[in-house]
Amino acid sequence: MSRVAAVVLAAGASSRFGGHKLLAPLDGLPLLQHVLDAANGAAVDEVVVVLGHAADEVRASVRLGRARVVVNADHALGQSTSLRAGIAAVPAADAAVVLLGDQPRVTPALVDALVARQEATGAAAVISSWNGRHSPPTLLRRELWPALSTITGDVGARELLAGRRDDVAVLEVTPVLGGLDDVDSPDDLARLTRPPL
């Protein structure tokens, strides 16, 4: 059986939010806590969270559960550096599910569904599709990891997978699996806070 890790990217400075968005409260918990809870609750073998900006404050503000912290000293150079740091921290894994710390409606069931989709298809990667667009979380098999050295700046796996459509499976995310809203601004957070109509 394959060994799967969950890697949560949470190192950014939240410059567009106007404060540290990963610690902004949502449903009584810091935004990042929702993602950590999803990763910790999934049927994965290990969980790593990559911190950077205000790492000590973030670490002190969340319950890590079984997650190990990796601090990315190069976080100011963009998400690509955090992705590499997270992958480097799980050398025994055969695959990694990469989650973003600002997608608080992800669920353990979504993480598990990505793993199941990979096992069913044998694909090198599985990307989530939600409301007609591709989005993290994304599963990356270890054969793709060496190519992460070719991406730079504030980009993630999308750049890596752009030319590999034959190796990529898609998971259609339904409401039962959660939602993939990301929080970039206070308005985004307000939309998630409002009860559904």
Structural write-up:
The chain is of the alpha/beta class. The protein has one domain: Spore Coat Polysaccharide Biosynthesis Protein SpsA, Chain A. The chain is built from six helices and nine strands; from the N terminus they run E-E-E-H-E-H-E-H-E-H-E-E-H-E-H. It has a seven-stranded mixed beta sheet, sandwiched between helices. A two-stranded antiparallel sheet has the order 2-3. Helix 1 crosses helix 4. The longest helix is centred in the middle third of the chain and has 14 residues. The chain is globular and about 40 Å long.
Please, how many domains? 1
Radius of gyration: 15 Å
CATH topology: Spore Coat Polysaccharide Biosynthesis Protein SpsA, Chain A
From the 3D coordinates, which CATH architecture would you assign?
A: Alpha-Beta Complex
| Percent of residues in beta strands | 15-25%
Give the strand order, joined by hyphens, for the main sheet: 5-4-1-6-8-7-9
**Average pLDDT figure:** 88
Report the uncertain regions: none
Helix content bin: 25-40%
Question: Structural class, from secondary structure content?
Answer: alpha/beta
* Fourth CATH level, the homologous superfamily: Spore Coat Polysaccharide Biosynthesis Protein SpsA, Chain A
How is the biggest beta sheet arranged?
A: 7 strands, mixed
Mind telling me the CATH class?
A: Alpha Beta
Number of helices: 6
Give the overall form.
globular
Order of helices and strands: EEEHEHEHEHEEHEH
First-residue to last-residue Cα separation? 43 Å
Q: Would you count the extended β strands for me?
A: 9
